[in-house]
Design goal:
It is a single chain. This protein has helices at 45-53, 86-90, 99-109, 122-136, 152-163, 176-182, 204-235, 241-260, 321-328, 363-368, 391-397, 414-426, 444-456, 468-474, 493-507, 515-528, 534-561, 566-569, 571-603; strands at 7-16, 19-29, 34-38, 60-65, 71-73, 140-144, 168-172, 185-190, 193-197, 281-292, 295-306, 310-314, 336-341, 347-350, 381-384, 387-390, 432-436, 460-464, 477-482, 485-490. The protein has 604 residues and is of the alpha/beta class. It has 4 domains: 7-206, P-loop containing nucleotide triphosphate hydrolases (Rossmann fold), CATH 3.40.50; 207-260; 281-494, 3-Layer(aba) Sandwich (Rossmann fold); 509-603, Valyl-tRNA synthetase, C-terminal domain (Helix Hairpins, Orthogonal Bundle). Strand 17, helix 13 and strand 18 (460-464) form a beta-alpha-beta unit. The protein starts with 6 loop residues before the first strand and ends with a helix. 34% of the residues are buried.
């Protein structure tokens, strides 16, 4: 028995500012659908979501919602002005006896319901909109970037909540892991055409690449046909004029067909140019601590970060990731301990609040501003790693339209602001990248490119992100912050999770008969360390983790270099990986020797 669709869009056409967004769009949403809605920034994803929600009036076509079906749309910028607190807004459409749902969802998403609306941040407003939607529990949920402004724990909670929900939902998100784990179908918007595949996001890229390959082949055949007909038009004129004119008209139709094709948007021409080499030791932190207002942010944390490492910092919102990052880079002083920065460091900073961008500046001024004096630029050229490039040309490399050059920064979308900030920092040489939430608002293609650039970057990278897939692809080590403690683990997010599970097993209480023996072993181990200074004890405890991290990196590099075609295919990558392998092997030897010395000293 056929199911009645929840929602049906038929023959939809929509134009904004004279430019068609959709033409002849047909779309059906069925009960139980779990759909990823994907496309490049600016392709119309949010607009289509609003059409489905009935918030945008179309030029042509119809929207039919099944009788009795409830639908909910997560607003990007909800209007909270009529409410005193975030909780008042979140519960505004619920019956009095249903308010408990708001509290349950708010706890999972870590939203303070009593926070006043007038002091709430944009991120808190969006979380309140998400709490409101989930508490109302409609049969069809339209979720536009629900993971933005959520930390990893809240994203995991939301993922679990949606996975067990009986509602149908459509998701826009940049979080690969989130989409992979939740979706069973994919809607792809590409140049005004909406296609659907009955497979989740995990299969999207293979499907996209196949369709693009077929499109390229068809374009190639059309170009060959036009070339052949054009050659005939010049050389093949004969007495049979009527037939000849028919072929000439056919040639015109072929050319019109080619002109009507919409060119695919390219990928931003992004590249990080590493500056002069820094020293081998980039950052050495010893026993650093920091507290604000009586709250301990970080306690007694030590780490050594060498050249070429990519260190990720993870933890819940407010755990202290950005504070720790600022201490490690010398921006703020620790209360206790010391931070020593290596030689010849040239940092480049991508901050999550986009504070480096003045919203009243034009894109032109933002690119030509002097980073040292913050004087607004008036030049027509921007220095890109020592080479002058015209501002408009450089903006085009980052997929900006020429008309946007004189537009204010405040007019940009979140993804466009991220691209503009990347354009700024990529114009300058650096050997230390500090990336605080760089993945927010970027489309999948730009994320892929950013991941590749960060992985290939010759300098050192410090990264804060809640994107689990991005962390797995990029990080060589992960620092987890929780309850004032920071702990370093080898590898990315998945490696950290696996090591955390191993720790939980190791720390589990032993059966009662074994407790006296284990207690004695711990006391014996403690007494063995009494011959060490405080710093040496801490170093002895930290070295095993450092050794494991180096072993993981060596294994990854060895696997990468095992490709027999790598040297001939990508000689630069082969050389970089070979140098990195030698460096890690040397560091491993030194760490093992240091551990032996300290362990021997602890025995005496």
């Amino acid at each position: 028995m056929a199911r009645t669709p929840y929602l049906q869009l038929s023959d939809i056409s929509l134009t904004f500012g004279g430019n068609p967004v959709f033409s002849d769009l047909d779309l059906v949403v069925q009960p139980g659908d779990r759909v990823a809605l994907v496309g490049r920034n600016g392709s119309g994803k949010s607009t289509l979501m609003k059409v489905m929600a009935g918030l945008v009036e179309v030029d042509h076509g119809s929207r039919v919602l099944a009788p009795g079906v409830t639908t909910g749309y997560m607003e990007q910028d909800p209007d909270l002005s009529a409410f005193e607190t975030l909780g008042d807004y979140a519960a505004s459409d619920l019956q009095a006896g249903e308010a408990y749902r708001v509290e349950a969802v708010a706890e999972g998403l870590k939203l303070n319901l009593s926070a006043p609306v007038e002091t709430a941040s944009g991120g808190e407003g969006r979380r309140a909109a998400l709490v409101k939607l989930l508490a109302e529990a409609p049969e069809l949920m339209l979720l536009d970037e629900p993971t933005n402004h959520l930390d990893i724990e809240a994203i995991a909670w939301l993922e679990a909540e949606l996975s067990q929900s009986r509602a149908a939902f459509i998701l826009i998100s940049h979080d690969r892991a989130f989409l992979n784990n939740l979706t069973r179908a994919t809607l792809w918007i590409d140049r005004g055409i909406v296609r659907r595949q009955e497979k989740g996001f995990e299969a999207f890229e293979a499907w996209r690449d196949k369709l693009w390959a077929e499109e390229d082949e068809a374009r190639h055949k059309l170009n060959r046909k036009i070339k052949a007909e054009a050659r005939w038009a010049v050389e093949g004129i004969s007495a049979r004029r009527k037939r000849n004119m028919g072929r000439v008209r056919a040639l015109g139709e072929l050319r019109a067909q080619k002109s009507a094709q919409i060119k695919r948007q390219g990928t931003a021409a992004m590249t990080f140019e590493a500056g002069p080499k820094s020293g081998r030791q980039v950052i050495v932190a010893s026993g650093i601590s920091k507290a604000f207002g009586g709250r301990q942010i970080v306690r007694d944390f030590s780490i050594k970060i060498g050249r070429g490492e990519r260190v990720a910092f993870v933890g819940s919102n407010g755990a202290g990731k950005t504070t720790l990052l600022k201490m490690l880079t010398g921006e703020i002083e620790p209360d206790n301990g010391s931070v020593k920065l290596g030689t010849n460091l040239v940092p480049a900073v991508f901050d999550q609040n986009r504070a480096a961008l003045n919203p009243d500046d034009t894109l032109w001024a933002a690119l030509t501003e002097d980073p040292a004096t913050r004087v607004r630029g008036r030049a027509d050229y921007v220095m890109v790693r020592g080479v002058p490039k015209h501002v408009v040309g450089y903006l085009k490399e980052f997929l900006f339209d020429e008309r946007q050059a004189r537009a204010p920064v405040r007019s940009l979308s979140g993804g466009e602001k991220a691209r503009l900030l990347l354009a700024r920092i990529m114009a300058r040489e650096s050997n230390l990248l500090i990336l605080d939430e760089p993945t927010n608002d970027l489309d999948i293609e730009t994320l892929d490119l950013l991941q590749e650039l960060v992985s290939d970057y010759e300098g050192t990278v410090l990264l804060v992100s809640h994107d689990r897939d991005f962390l797995d692809r990029v990080a060589t080590s992960t620092v987890a912050l929780k309850d004032g403690r920071a702990t370093a683990y080898a590898g990315g997010w998945s490696d950290y999770q696996a090591q955390k599970k191993e720790e939980a097993v190791a720390d589990a209480p032993a059966p009662t008969p074994d407790k006296p023996r284990k207690t004695a072993e711990k006391q014996q181990a403690s007494s063995r360390k009494e011959g060490l200074s405080f710093t040496e004890k801490h170093r002895l405890e930290a070295l095993p983790g450092e050794i494991v991290r180096l072993e993981v990196e060596i294994a990854k590099l060895t696997e990468f270099l095992s490709d027999p075609e790598l040297f001939s295919r990508e000689p630069e990558k082969f050389a970089k990986a070979s140098d990195a392998l030698v460096e890690r092997q040397t560091a491993l030897g030194a760490a093992e020797e240091e551990w032996l010395i300290l362990a021997d000293k602890a025995e005496t």
